[in-house]
Amino acid sequence: MTQSVRFLLVLHNHQPVGNFDHVIEQAYQDSYLPFLDVFERYESLRIALHTSGPLMEWLDAHHSEYVDRLAALVSAGRIEIVGGAFYEPILTMLPSRDRIGQIKMYTRWLEARLGANISGIWTPERVWEQSLAGDIAQAGIGYTLLDDFHFKNAGLTDERLHGYYVTEDDGHPLNVFPGSEALRYAIPFGPPQQTIDYLGSIAESQSDAVVVFADDGEKFGTWPETHQHVYDNGWLAQFFDLLVQNESWIHTSLPSETLAQVSPAGKVYLPEGSYREMTEWALPAERLVEYEKIHGELQQDPRGAAALSFVRGGFWRNFKVKYPETDEMYSRMMMVSRRLQEATEAGLEQGAAGPAVDRARRDLYRGQCNCAYWHGAFGGVYLPHLRNAIYEHLIAADAALDEAFGKTGAWVEAVADDFNCDGRNEVHLAGDKLSALLSPARGGWLYELDVRSIEHNLLATLARRPEAYHQKVLAGANQDGDQAASIHDRVVFKQEGLEHRVQYDAHLRKSLIDHFWDDDVTLEAVARCEAEERGDFACGSYEAKLRRNPDRIQVQMTRSGRAFGLPLTITKGVTLEAGSSTLEVAYQIEGVPQDRPLHFAVELNFAGLPSGADDRFFYGPQRERLGQLGEKLDMADTTALGLVDEWLGIDLALTMSRPSHIWTFPIETVSQSEGGFELVHQSVVVQPHWFIQGDQDGRWSVSMKLAIDTSLAESRKSHVSGKALAAGKA
Question: Which positions are catalytic?
Fold first, then answer.
């Protein structure tokens, strides 16, 4: 080989905020540790490494010796540390202040802990919009890495993608490297020689070529079947052996070194986008099915290769439309971010409230971690523990800001505003114990209920909806999964019979959803979404007003609509008192006939209370156990139902002023993750229902109370705090 090529091997290691310790430990043992063990033996090779902040904090706490080894390799010039936004957010969904703040915070951490000189960042999920260039540059960063797909969308051809480019925004320049999609699929799934041959073909055709592999480090051991392939079968050692054998013309280089020694290939402005698969996942399900069909046809057409370079999917931000639950998280995050900005502008971080503001900022940034805000080949938004973690940190940030602003003791307040930027007002009803968000324009729903003592949102739910990959599930396709393959190509079922569990909801799974059913409708029909809605209240628009007392506020919502062809008016009030952990709900229905019953139901959902465990159960009026939280219950003439999650430390007691029938059933989604298709428990439905008849004035009413007891969780917290204090004194 007469010409040489610079090969940038850039790994991205990441675990999301809220992931389980045992999962991260397994990834450490399967991927991060063995990769380092193999790499250290090849002293002439160099790589760039980005480790996300959540993972780096975990590693430093659980395996500080690994972090020390990284620091030693940094000092030896063998590893260049690529920085980033600390808690791995999708940068395009953050305001500029948080983008810059996260990048600077992580840069300081990496420089202090690893002795690294941070000049580049990893752009999470390679989600790009041109405005990022200015913010990244203003954060003190000189380069980032994206996919070659971004550059192709800007009109560049393959032969022009073996270097790096300069872009800018608002006069702030930034260098951008294109990562090779071909290498993303070849490494580590193809034979090692395949990559060497690929690099050779580029070296023969272009002098001073720069080729970048930039992708997940979990491909080297954590993805299904890859540990045996990469380590036991020796793929990585063979690959490194080949790089060493060919180092006369393959020079493993570092990004900052390349910038110093190679001129840019030119200037470019990149359209918004991400890697190819991400743009596909962002499409609505029905359009993704059509896209995949067309994409497959083009691949079979001799002219298809040329056409495919102009074919792309959707816009990342539309995940917030595809999954409204992610928009709820996003909107909640923005509420906290604005409060933090108000605290900063008020100068609170400079005074005695400074530590509280700092805690709020850290928790806000953790609540911006990207994984729960989207879904593709990874579980993402479908994983309850990731959604719960986002809300945990956002609720904690709110509490810290309350402290910074001097809110103490018992209090309650309410604000009406367009919190989710959809052109309609929502209502935030908050107190020192509970925080509730209601949407009058969407059925008068209660769509968030935060239990502040344990930082848990009881309405971090997820509805069942069509997904393009459900076609594979319904077909019952399967593979043995006995060889390493890209997760984009695997079809593996983690449970049997999933094709029979696919079903779809008519609405989001929130609370205070008002239904009218036929008299003879069954629990099974309601649970399977086969019951016909006989009213227009479930998703209809309600008018709202606030009724305030000094220590008690009620949100009153009213709608005039129809049920069974009859004109009815529903007024429901949601009341919260200062110092109270009980939410009060009152219903009054007007226009109810006296001569015939109407079947009326109020749907409640509770998230974060898993099924399948004996310490998570229903109980009746005498506290008698009624089964695990995944059970279907069909109760008659009762005035109370309780739900307990002893692991979480919460007890929910629902009481009603009138005897009620109650249905309960679980909401379970069929979704895909890197491990295959799986059934995931999302929430518990509790649906009181009555056969109502009007009084002499045509009215019917009922009141309900939801009392939330977290004394078990709080006693555990006090016990842990006491032990920590005792250990500190010792």
Answer: 125, 216
